[in-house]
Model the fold of this input.
Amino acid sequence: MTTTLLPSTTLPILNPQTHDTASYDDTDVIADIKRLKKERGATILAHYYQEGEIQELADVTGDSLKLARAATQVDSPIIVFCGVHFMAETAKMLNPSKKVLLPDLQAGCSLSDSCPADKLWRYQEMLRENGRKFQTVTYINSSAAVKALSDWIVTSGNAEQIVRKVPEEYEILFVPDQHLGNYLSEVTGRKMIPWPGSCMVHEIFSVQDLVDMKRKHPAGKTIAHPECPKNILEHSDFIGGTEAMIRYVGGFAEPTDFIVATEANMLWQLASKHPRHRYLPVPGVSCACNKCPHMARNTLEKLRDCLRDLEPEITWQPEFDKAKEVLERSLLRD
Ligand code: SF4
Done:
């Protein structure tokens, strides 16, 4: 089967005048969500990769680091986490006494799945048997069982700072994202043993389309997430996590075109915060824009149902105790 790519000129350009919010048919569901949220005393946290209509309903939107920290400040007894499973697990670990709900329990993550805990444990044992002295630095996109095997947890927002903290006498086993590991190795000069994992969304941006877009928008700036492979990063004017992207575009006083290489829902957040600019999504090799299918499992209807039924819930698991220690040391203390 052949796939036809849309020419990049036909890609959606997001600005606040044109971008979609909820359709008319969603208004009843949205009204139910607002009512149930109030009745339940729930706080909704939403990742920047959720659909704009869900981000609009959230009390806090953010990247993994901001949301993990926000979860510790929540007063209400219920947190509804609109994101993927490892994020809701993280919120639970940092708030054991709260009820943490995830609208769709199947909302996973290809990056997290690429590093199963039993495989990591065997690899660490092999390194130890070979006399290697190392610390394991783990990207937050990982299961609680993998976090429990780690020395440090990082997000794209604090990874560089934590990597620089690891004493020089240790090698760094960086899991699970090889691209972020390689990028961090370049900016810090630290040698990494990268785990061969990757994000299915950031992995498949089309370099050719990016080059074409840069040619068509010569004054535009390209911003890319460090989960992208090197062939995308080397065409970028700015590399950073989602919070850093928001700060970067905010620094441009004049209306500017930004070519964006990260999950496409981030464009909604950028347009909300800095509407004077235009945002152009870099397409994937097999689709016009890159949306995460795992994040997309959370819908308005599932959000409503989970507020109504108070499930699916993230329950405490034995590995959470150790993972919680590593998380708190890494994310909550400077
Ligand atoms: S965008 Fe990538 S890293 Fe983020 S949840 Fe989806 S698969 Fe995982």
